[in-house]
Amino acid sequence: MPHTPSAKKRLKQSQRRKARNRSVKAELRTEVKKVRSSAAAGNADEAKSNMVSAQTKLDRAATRGIIHKNKAARVKSRLSKTLKTAAGKK
């Protein structure tokens, strides 16, 4: 438990940031899941549109420091690979 006023303020700030970061990460997982499920179902157009929104959210999260930039790049790469293989199977 913080004792000084500055430590109390830092605790409140970190709690707000933690809540915000958790919600952003949850949105990211949802977007990635949408891309994967639509690619698995064979909906190429839907998967591509979901991919665009997922890439945007991943880039924004990486820019804001919520996730590492290499993680964003890795996830985008794997998603695009998934889309290409799904398109090739069709």
What's the topology here?
Elements: H1 5-41, H2 44-63, H3 69-89
Helix pairs in contact: 1-2, 1-3, 2-3
Explain what the structure shows:
- The chain is an all-alpha fold.
- It has a single domain (5-89), classed as Methane Monooxygenase Hydroxylase, Chain G, domain 1 (Up-down Bundle), CATH 1.20.58.110.
- Helix content is 87%, strand content 0%.
- It is built from 3 helices and no strands.
- The protein has helices at 5-41, 44-63, 69-89.
- The radius of gyration is 18 Å and the shape is elongated.
Give me the CATH architecture, please.
Up-down Bundle
Amino- and carboxy-terminal Cα gap: 58 Å
Secondary-structure element pattern, one letter each: HHH
Enumerate how many helices there are, as a single number.
3
Please give a quick description of this structure.
The protein has 90 residues and is an all-alpha fold.
